[in-house]
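Thread: "does anyone have the structure for this chain?"

Original post by V.I.:
We have the sequence but no experimental structure in hand. Need at least a predicted one for the grant figures.
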Amino acid sequence: MSFDVLCYCYHVSHVLNLGRIPALLAARGARVRWFNAFPEASFPQPKSPGIDYAFDVPLEAVGAQEADLYLTPFVGQSAHFPKRARRVHFLVSLTSLDGVYDKGMFDHYDVIACAGRHHIDEFTALGRERRWSNKTLMPVGYPKLDGQRRQLAESGLTAPEVLTVVFAPTHAYYVNRGFSILNQYGEQLVASMLDDGIAVVFRPHMESWRDQDKPVVERIVARFQDHPRFTLDRSGNYFDTYARSHLMLTDISGTGFTYAFTFGRPALFFAPNTADEAGMRGIQFERRENIGLVVRSLDDVVPKLRLAQTHHAFLERQIADFSDWLLFNPGDSEQFFAEHVHQLLAPPGTMSNWPHLHHPA
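Reply from O.Q.:
Generated one for you, tokens below.
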């Protein structure tokens, strides 16, 4: 079957969320164009034959194109879609929806590529609330995770002897501001780990370098950049630094789940604002201890990091069991999408094997 596919990545990290899918579609005879908002030099993986790449492409230019399918991890897009294309959204996080996304961020997509069973349940509920019509929930899995697992198997990278922790706080914006820890606690958390002899890899979210978080990030870097156990990671692909660590410390960020499922190592969640969690649902609130530990106070951070290090074997078994239960098509998400893509080109309402959300009566 011949069809036109247009991919769009706004951030460098979005490339990993699409993984090998564009290449697999091109190999099956599709015409694939891959537009990116960033420069060619920032593209984080080798280019694939059969794909037409374009760089420094603004979102507005996408709306001037035509395609059969539009694939993007761009969150919250509401305009400038390619003409006549079915719009397929690939999630940028393994987290659930509460406290992470605005409820309207998925309104304008036709298909959501769900990573796990939690996404099917939560998008079904959100669809009722938003009165979605003819939206398909596709049980794909998580291409980014599968790609990183392949890379780990081939890399041979291991963690050093000194306990090394990746500190990866989420980017604060109006939905998750009550859960983001960078502004209020970031500097103190880094200091407490370094003072205890722990090596710290500081990996702020890419958006934190260009908005209200920037002064905090720069202050942390300025204070600790000369410390022998402090490392700043601003790379487009964090894989190497993550592979050389033992634990992650984060907040509400989905990177904790991706880290745990990729490397089989625990993630700790610093969550001091218990009152803000009242009534919140989803794995980033209810299932954190399936992949690590929850920390409620600054004084408990270092002791719990040491505790996780001591009991890492037990925690690693928990991580493997939870990943097996939660995720669709582990290791095969990209192949699954490529093998079933023809169903997305069928008329709405004909995909009886997947959840298909209709406007309620």
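V.I.: this helps a lot. The two ends are 36 Å apart (CA to CA).
O.Q.: and Residues 312-326 form the longest helix (15 residues).
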